[in-house]
Design brief:
Elements (H helix, E strand, L loop, with lengths): L12 H9 L20 E2 L8 E6 L4 E9 L2 E4 L1 H4 L7 E5 L10 E10 L13 E5 L24 E6 L14 E6 L3 H8 L8 E4 L16 E4 L2 E8 L10 E5 H12 L2
Antiparallel strand pairs: 1-9, 2-3, 2-5, 3-4, 4-7, 5-6, 6-7, 8-9, 8-11, 10-13, 11-12, 12-13
The structure holds arginine (ARG).
Arginine binds next to strand 12.
Pfam families: Trypsin
GO molecular function: peptidase activity
Organism: Streptomyces pactum
Length: 263
């Protein structure tokens, strides 16, 4: 067997064989995982990633991430916003530490959740927040609907967040970042079966694991070439071998996001 299979892929071996015979890259993720702290990765600052926002409760306790795409619009995950109201959340920019008090706090005047969002494994995990006041930070560009090639297996992506540094661990006080390669859709399908919906999701991670987003990173960015290309959505555990992280495939929702930004 020449291809390493994801751990949960034993029953999908036949499908993988088909993919392999079609010349589908199975992973593109066999390169070494340099220990980076997220899980794996290194600490960073809000100045280094000025468009990365904390999404907090009204007491400014961070529970998700988001990406500033215009001074008053933040892209995040739908699952972060379920049960929230415009009065229950805040967006905090320019704050490196979860326990910090600096930066800019904005109230939210509108929460748009993809109208067909049901659960993370059904896809459409995207939301757009409208801020009541403008953030004085550099915004991020995001991929357009036609740029579907950006996710080619093995492409280096950057993940950024305040999430836990191990599965079941505690959140990082300081913002962290790491790089992970995209996987092929076939590889992700092998890991997750029918829970992976290729039209709405893209996976990233090393075959050997070790580097991943984790709880609390949700809603935050997956950057490709410095642009927002994915949203931290879900995964089984964190950083496990053969089990990549799953991100919202933003090209699919780019036009909808633009509509929200212009509304
Ligand atoms: N659902 C998690 C959150 O709400 C993100 C999990 C990402 N998991 C992963 N293995 N990449 O923060």
């Amino acid at each position: 067997m020449f291809f390493k299979l994801p751990r949960r892929a034993k029953l999908a071996a036949a499908a993988v064989g088909v993919a392999a015979s079609l010349g589908v890259a199975m992973s593109g993720a066999t390169a070494q995982a340099a220990p980076q702290p997220i899980v794996g990765g290194t600490t960073t600052t809000a100045s280094a990633y000025p468009y990365v926002m904390q999404i907090t409760d009204s007491g400014q306790n961070q529970f998700c991430g988001g990406t500033l795409v215009t001074p008053t619009k933040v892209v995040t995950a739908a699952h972060c916003m379920v049960g929230e109201t415009t009065s229950s959340v805040r967006v905090v920019g320019g704050r490196t530490y979860r326990n910090g008090t600096n930066g800019t706090v904005a109230r939210v005047s509108k929460i748009w959740i993809h109208p067909e969002y049901r659960s993370v494994t059904k896809g459409k995990d995207v939301a757009v927040l409208t801020l009541s006041s403008a953030m004085p930070y550099t915004t991020a560009k995001y991929v357009s609907a036609t740029e579907t090639g950006v996710y080619a297996a093995g492409t280096t992506t950057r993940i950024v967040g305040w999430g836990t540094t191990s599965s079941g661990g505690s959140s990082s006080n300081q913002l962290r970042t790491a790089t992970v390669p995209t996987t092929s859709d076939a590889y992700c399908k092998s890991a997750y079966g029918t829970r992976f919906i290729a039209s709405d999701m893209v996976c990233a991670g090393y075959d050997q694991g070790g580097v991943d987003t984790c709880q609390g990173d949700s809603g935050g960015p997956l950057l490709i070439g410095g642009r927002l290309a994915g949203i931290v959505s879900w995964g089984d555990g964190c950083a496990e071998p053969g089990i990549p992280g799953v991100y919202t495939r933003l090209t699919t929702f780019s036009n909808l996001v633009t509509q929200q930004i212009n509304s």
